[in-house]
Sequence to fold (447 residues):
Amino acid sequence: MNTIVARGWLPILRQFIVVTLGLHLLSPLFAGEALERIRQRGTLIWGADQEGGGPFVYPAADDPSRLEGFEVEIAALLAEHLGVQPQFSQGQWDKLPNLVDRGDIDIVLNGYEWTPARVADYGVSIPYYIYELQLLGRKDDASLRTWGDLQVPVDGRPRRVSVLGGSAAEDYLRSLPGEPVETVSYDGATDAMRSTELGIDGLDANLQDLPVWTFFQSEFPALQPIGDPVGRGYYVVLTRKDEPELLRALNDALLAGLRDGRLRRIYERYRMWNRTQSLRALETNSDGVFEGDLRPTGQDGDAASPADYIPVRGWDVITQRGGLLVRAAGMTVALSVVSMPLAILAGLLMTLLRLYGPRLLGRLATLYVELVRGTPLVLQLYVIFFLLPEIGISVPAFWAAVIGLAINYSAYEAEIYRAGIQAIPHGQMEAAYALGMTRSLAIRRVI
Fold:
């Protein structure tokens, strides 16, 4: 019996491997048509994380469904050059490149710095902004007034500096010579600055992108800049590695925006234009060739209106953001309603296979239950959402969550059902046999 079952599964397994490998090999062919696909769809889907806040991407104070930020305007500039409309897609900042790999978004446009590693893995545009890093300290901390003070231990411990996780600021601090400092990673730039301002967990300083500090400095009156900006680098747009036509079109759009002054007006609106942009602007092409001194021709036109950040506090949070919370709660309920019936069915199937199925299938069911119960839910979701696309199986976000929750719940449901069935006295089954019931009928009607 076990041999027959195994032979029945082998053809299915072979077909699955062939199909997945075929999809994986063919995926570059479809990826090369990215620019044409975007134009046919009529939208450029760009990924960013609103949690990072201004000046990059953040909800408008009067309408949280409307986005503001200099990258929102750059996305519109890029989409206009391609002849399409921009479409925003929310994602966790450090997972945005994975969304490009999956094909869920066309580009990443969210303060990603140029690094050799990203050049090796992704299509990297010419810089759309040249950033610098600013060290911030508390005004009442007299022991921190220069960069040199940062490497002087306090009470026998190294200085603790907050940074945005995975950012160039984190890499810069780790590369400093001399006495090491301890970095503390945060998911949001404003969270890092607020924690430093309050001195949470013994934080001494914050290393922040200069545009972020310039935009938010009025919100953190207890912080002050320490020394001059350091660590000059480049914000770039990321695409898939195999989409050169899309990358060239994005580069053309950025160069055109620099030449006609549109980029400068955007940066002035968010108080980001500085001498660094004037001296070393976006003057290289996709091959790194110097294009010359590209001075905006429209810089003598109308001055850009500054964009002010208006924080939402008090009851305004409820009145303006309440709808978002209700929709989020609705999504949670929808995920539970859809995934729980699937979990019940899968859990019952695993239980029946373990107790009454063939030995091979019973062992596989046991392995399934123990493996799912022994791994975190977030790891299971990561495998479904990020790793399956690597073999050509891409699942939409909603259904990836449904499948992940159903699989996770089913293992626990299976254990509940198994314990309940095994608690039934064996005499019940024997009585059913005595009445002439078959095994399957006894399981359905009695057990």
